[in-house]
Request: fold
Amino acid sequence: MKDLHSILVHADDTIRTALERLNRAGWTVLLLVEADGRLVRTVTDGDLRRMLLENHDLESTLRALPVQAPHTVPRNAPADLILQSMNRCQIDQVPEIDETGRPIDLHLRRELDQPVLLSPPHLADEERTFVEQAFATNWIAPVGPNIDAFENEIAATVGMRSAAALSSGTAAIHLGLKLLGVEPGDRVFCSALTFVATVNPIRYLNAEPVFIDSEPDTWNMSPAALADALEAADRAGNLPKVVVPVGLYGQSPDMEPILELCDRYGIPVLEDAAESLGATYRGRAAGSFGRLGIYSFNGNKIITTSGGGMLVGDDEALIERARFLATQARTPAGHYEHHEVGFNYRMSNILAGIGRGQLQVLTDRVEQRRNVFERYRSGLEDLPTIRWMPEPAGHRSTRWLTAATIDLGGTDQDLPALVASLADAGIEARRIWKPMHRQPIFAKATYWPHHSGESVSDRLFETGICLPSGSGMTLEQQDRVIRRLRERLAPPSRIWRSSTLALG
Ligand SMILES: Cc1ncc(COP(=O)(O)O)c(C=O)c1O
Reply:
């Protein structure tokens, strides 16, 4: 909701005052109100221009304006009906009034028309300097000072000794699994509730993924399911080569019991923190708990290089080998010498420059995303059907995406219909990841639920949704999402009805 104070004027105000207000507010409309705050009419810059052309001067008062009943919408009018009323009346702004006729908000067409995206890139000025330096010094290749610096800066940020900048998070997982010795026929245990990019690299290596369910507290890998899976594998003599826990939507898994279990069986952990850079668990950075960790800088992530990834670890020799494999495994010689198959997985110096600029604002981005979450939470706290992704003690989530489960039992809609109705209002929401054990491509894979008869990831998929969470979202955009959700989820008695729309 906007602070309308700066655009309120009274009949005794002069045209000069009104013009100054418009100028300061940077808007094209003022709200003329009675002494008791009730709305009399809107005043546009065109109205003021016409007054001057009709021989009023700058000191004339607004009392000279013709009486004109304002087009308004009542409290909590839904977005699509506000747009309809704008179209019908051919206006680009419409005030929302309360039951007493006092203005409480002002809706602008440009805000309603603009889509609210799930997680768009948010760049500032810091990136430009590094990228311009790369151009100026002609370091455009996948080598250069930005790459070295970005690696060092990420390693320092997350508290690991070493980092390798790569072309994507997927590439980082692929190399990480290879470095940890995954070979054809090996088994890799990984989170069932994740994006497919966690699992595809297992298949690149002709290894077999085994899916571990989530637990309700973090939505991430269930230590109970992992314990069951490891115990059974130990008995059968087919322990996995690597365990890959994923930090979903900006939150670390409960790493302590996971590491304890993996240590007990001597299995290395590759932490997929693609979505959780900036999060902490027991005071340490998400992604820094395993033998190796990975981050993604894809365009939708909390910081981005447009596309890119990072492999981190404390074993410097292992990370150096990742750099070697990522540049076609070229053995140092006076010519092109190759003893094994390599990859073209290195990040470019230009993109590393964007990454360095983005890293400088990571802390701000975390705060901004957490604020978005908090605004949703407080704006919808009276709706008990929404249950937010928990943030247990010891965890600090970035709230990369605000995620929640929604009980639609008392309504006539299902989750796809809810997502579609948000899309109709220009709001991009997404369902929670469809768990990997339900994907046709992995139909034959083994799956370990949280407890026998209780699959947490299935329940989350059936009821879970991610809301627009970009760090650059305006308050108005956040309010649009809240308003639309309220329209769809509030009990019928509280929903504003279109027949009450007041137009002028
Ligand atoms: C959980 C998870 N793992 C891996 C990836 C892969 O990262 P990238 O897109 O940089 O390849 C992503 C995101 O895209 C992800 O969300």
